[in-house]
Amino acid sequence: MLCLKPEGSLSATWSSHLAHTALRNEIGSADCRRVIHTSALHQQLVFLNLGTPTNVRNPAFLGNREQFRDHPQTISLRSCCTEKSIGMPKLHCSRALWSPPAVSRLPHLRIARIVLTRARYVEDQSTPLLNLFLSLQLIALGSLLLILATITLSSGISKRHPIFINFIVTWIISCASYIFMVGHPIDWEPPYELCLIQASLIYTVPSLTSASTLTLVLHIMMFFRASFPLPDIHGYGRSWYVWLVLVPYIPAIITFSLSLGIGLKHPETVRRIDSGMYCNMENQYPGKISAILVLVFMLACIILEVLICRDVRRHMSALRNEVFGHLKATLIRVLAFSAFTVVAVIMSIIFFFTDNHGPALNIIIALVPIDAVLVFGTQEDILRSWASSIRSVFDFFRNLLPSKSRSETDILSPTQERMLPRFAFVPVPLKHLTPSYDPSRPHSSSTYESTSDISRMSCVNK
C-alpha cells in the first residue's frame, strides 16, 4: 500500500478510501518502509488503486521488500531511473506494530502525518540497539588499539610474536569496519561510495578474523608440541611464520574484490540495513561466500583445539610443573577465546540459510571483539604495564600541584618524626627464571627469560 500526501488538505472521498484500504491491508502488522523522497518521478510510485493526486510528496510503501521489488510499478520506476540516470530511491525497513487511528478520526488527518508517526515509532525502537551496537564496537576498537600500542611500544613486557600482533590487527580492522554510522541518526542515508566501501568490508572481515584465529590456534599447537619431545615434530623456519601472517589476507582480498565488483555493477543493491547499523547488499552471493569461509575456518579451529586438548592430556603432569605455568595459562586463554568458534559456526549456518538476521545477531557479532579484549588484554604483563603508566601519570599531575593544596596529613610535625622508628625500606631485587612464553615467537621448550621486575621490600635498621 502507498500512502501519499497531496498538496493541501485531504478530501473526504480520498480519506475514506484510504481508511478502508488501510484496514483491509492490515497496516498494523505490515513492514514499514520509511518515508522516501523523490524528485520528478514521484508519479511512478502511485501503487494499487489510490489514484493519482497532484503534487504528491513524501511517498512511503507499506509491505515487505520482496513485494516492493517485484511490484510492476517498481520495475517501471527502475527502468525510468536507468533511462534518466537518476538513482533509485532507497527504502529502509524496520518491523514495528502500529495501530492506525480510529476510522472516525482518520479523515481529519494528513496521510503524511500517519506515515511519519509510524516512522518515528520505528526509529525510537531501533535507536537504542543501534547505539548499543556502535558503542560495543567503539569500546572494542579503543581497547584493541591500546593493547596493540602496549605490546609494540612498551619495554616492560615480553615481546609478542607477529602472529599474535596480526591477530590483534585483524580485529582492529573488523571493529573499524562497523563504525561508519557513528554520529549519524538512524534515518541518515549515507553516500553511495561510503556505503559501498562498508558493505564490501562487512563481507570481508569475518573471513579475515576467522582465518587469523585459525593461524593463532595453529601456532599455539605447534609451539606446544615443540615444547615436548615428540618424535614427529620438527623445527619450523621463518618462512613458515611469514606464511601464517599473510594467509588470512588472501581470502579477505578475494572476498573484498568480489563484493566491490558486485556493488559497482549493481549499485541499486547497496543500502543501509533496516536497523541502521551498517550497509550491506541485497545480493546474496557475498554474504553466502563469507559465511562458507567462516564455517570452514572455524571447523578447522575446532579440529585443532581437539588435538591441543589431546596433547594437554598426555602431558598433564608436565604442565603442573611451575616451569610450564605460563604456557598453561596461555593455552587456557586461547581455548577460552576459541570457544566462540562454536558460536561462529552456528552464526555462519544462520547467515547462509537466511537473509534477514535481525539486530540480535548483530549484537552478538559486536560481543566477539569484546571477548578478545577480555581474554588477551588481561595478561599479567600487560596489566602491570598499564598500572605502571597510570601511576606515572598520577604522580606527574600530583607533582604539578602546589604544596599548599596537598593534604596536611602528608607533612609530619617534628614530634611525629621523632616518634617514628628509624627504618629505611630498601628494595632488594629477586631474580629467578620463568618461562617467557607469549603467543608469539618460535620458542623452544628451553627458552627462559630472567625477570627482575619482582621486588620485595626488606626492612633494614639503620
Number of domains: 2
Mean pLDDT rating: 67
| CATH architecture designation of the largest domain | Up-down Bundle
**What's the CATH topology name of the largest domain?**
Rhopdopsin 7-helix transmembrane proteins
Q: What gyration radius follows from the Cα positions, in whole Å?
A: 31 Å
In whole angstroms, the N-to-C terminal distance is 92 Å
Helix content: 55-70%
Q: Could you list the spans in which at least 5 consecutive residues all have pLDDT below 50?
A: 1-64, 86-124, 423-437, 439-462
Which shape, going by the Cα principal axes?
globular
Task: Please give the number of β-strands.
Answer: 10
The CATH superfamily title of the largest domain: Rhodopsin 7-helix transmembrane proteins
Largest sheet: 2 strands, antiparallel
Strand order of the largest sheet: 1-3
Q: Give the class from helix and strand content and strand pairing.
A: mainly alpha
- Count of discrete alpha- or pi-helical segments spanning 4 or more residues: 15
Strand content: 5-15%
Order of helices and strands: EHEEHHEHHHHHEEHHHHHHHEEEE
Q: What top-tier CATH class of the largest domain fits best? A: Mainly Alpha
